[in-house]
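Dear support,

I submitted the protein below through the web form. The confirmation email said the job was done, but the results page showed an empty box. After a refresh the structure appeared. I'm attaching both so you can tell me whether what I see now is the final result or a partial one.
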Amino acid sequence: MRKAKIYYKGEEAGELTQHDDGSFSFSYGDLWLADQDKPSISLTLPKTVKEHHSYHLFPSFFNMLPEGSNKNAVCTMRHLDENDYFSLLISTAGYDTIGAVTVVKNQESL
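What the results page shows now:
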């Protein structure tokens, strides 16, 4: 199991998990849920106590991945499998994103 913290405009909003079977889940943090002024991080991941599940990386995160020659360069430099979307996401979406969402590897899941 691998986990990443999801930040929205620099504030921790929730956690993305890739389970051992390859599926994904996303859940909002308690503090994020408790604040009525905090938005959903994506229209496809509505703000709810219920955990979101998917057999594939959620579209809102998949769309953050590099493509084409940029993807090839990152995978080569970081020795990543091009189909390991979770590793690719945490390698690139922690600092260089368009939009308010960033992704940082959860050090507890090492």
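Response: this is the final, complete result; the empty box was a page-load delay. The chain has four helices and five strands.
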